[in-house]
Amino acid sequence: QEPEEKKIALELLETEQAYVNRLHLLDQIFYTELMREAKNGKTVPEEVVKMIFSNISSIYQFHAHFFLPELQKRMEDWSCNPRIGDVIQKLAPFLKMYGEYVKNFDKAVELITVWSEKSPPFQDLIADIQKRKVCANLTLQHHMLEPVQRIPRYELLLKDYVRKLPLESPDREDAEKALEMIFMVAKHSNAAIAEMERLQNLWAVYQRLGLEGDIVDPSNELIKEGPIQKISIRTNSTSEKYLFLFNNMLLYCVPKVIQVGAEFQVHLRIDVEGMKVRELKDTQFPHTFLVSGKQRTLELQARSEEEMNTWIK
Q1: Residue 311: other Cβ atoms inside 10 A
Q2: Average pLDDT, integer, range 200-215
Q3: What is the pLDDT of residues 87-109, one digit of tens each?
Q4: pLDDT averaged over the chain?
Q5: Average pLDDT of 116-140?
Q6: What b/e sequence results for 82-116 when a residue is b if at least 16 CB atoms lie within 10 Å of its CB, and e otherwise?
Q7: pLDDT at 106
Q8: Which segments of the chain belong to CATH 2.30.29.30?
Q9: Percent of the chain scoring above 90 in pLDDT
Q10: Which residues form the PH domain (predicted)?
Q11: Where in the chain is the domain with CATH 1.20.900.10?
Q12: 38 or 1, higher pLDDT
């Protein structure tokens, strides 16, 4: 009966072997063949192929020529040296390479779709490779997802390994440190994805606003957006407006009737610095609040008390 921790270490080795095969397929078959055809000018521009595969070659080289051989050597010597923690510690810093691959993943999948429609020879070549036995009836996109899922897999296996280690195991200290390092890398990779999503969402908002030059700033953060009624004291009536609240400014906008390009026109920008907000007890217009800033003061009406409170907050 093998000890539990050895079973997990063997599972790590087996999954690593399968993973290296998958990386070989991505780098040495898909990437190499698509690149060769691109160089012949038959399918798509070379740049597109490079953008699809990002830094997969570095990831493949690292796992095939460094991590897998180290792991194999370690498992062969298990009887006299039962430990993998130190090997994983060597691996962890290199996993930061995945940040680039993971960040690029959505764009890569989109490029495959777009160019498959634009270039039938490109689509045919991918289909041809996918028919081969080595692809196991799975698509290129499916294989490309594997590196994205690999770091969480290391984390799970290592957590399990540490849990099953006997307290007095010579590998305990190294394994715990390795787990902490893997955890930090996973966080780094997730942070890269979150930052990418934030920038994409921000860019989408800027496009809806017609890309007003001085508004476009990558460090801005959108806090809340939504429709609002503007109260006119002069005519005692309300009109539909739209607000975008960022960490540093409030944009008071008018929805465009003819939506070509931008969805909104920015009528007013109020800096958050020095802005005051308070509820107004108005019997004629319920759920109203006052926003006063350096630039101007606005009387606004929300659709409900709850909505008014979230805006004020």
Answers
A1: 19
A2: 75
A3: 999 989 898 898 889 889 889 99
A4: 90
A5: 94
A6: bbbbbbbbebbeebebbbbbbbbbeebeebbeebb
A7: 86
A8: 222-312
A9: 60
A10: 221-313
A11: 4-209
A12: 38
Say what the pLDDT of residue 6 is. 94
Q: Which residue has the tokens 């070659």?
A: 57
The DSSP annotation for the chain comes to ---HHHHHHHHHHHHHHHHHHHHHIIIIIIIHHHHHHHHTTSSS-HHHHHHHHTTHHHHHHHIIIIIHHHHHHHHHTTTT----HHHHHHHGGGGGGHHHHHHHHHHHHHHHHHHHHH-HHHHHHHHHHHHSGGGTT--HHHHHHHHHHHHHHHHHHHHHHHHHS-TT-TTHHHHHHHHHHHHHHHHHHHHHHHHHHHHHHHHHHHHHTT--TTT--TT--EEEEEEEEEEETTTTEEEEEEEEEESSEEEEEEE-SS-SS-SEEEEEEEESTT-EEEEE--SSSSSEEEEE-SS-EEEEE-SSHHHHHHHH-
**CATH superfamily ID and name for 4-209:** Dbl homology (DH) domain (1.20.900.10)
d(Cα 155, Cα 185) in Å, to the nearest integer?
10
How far is Cα 259 from Cα 251, in angstroms, rounded to an integer?
18
Q: How far apart, in Å, are the Cα atoms of 7 and each of 24, 73, 230, 250? A: 26, 16, 67, 58
Give 43-88 pLDDT, tens digit per residue.
999 999 999 999 999 999 999 999 999 999 999 999 999 999 999 9
Please give the CATH topology (third level) of the domain spanning 222-312: PH-domain like (2.30.29)
Lowest mean pLDDT among 45-59, 196-210, 292-306: 196-210
The tokens describing 29, both together, are 């078959």
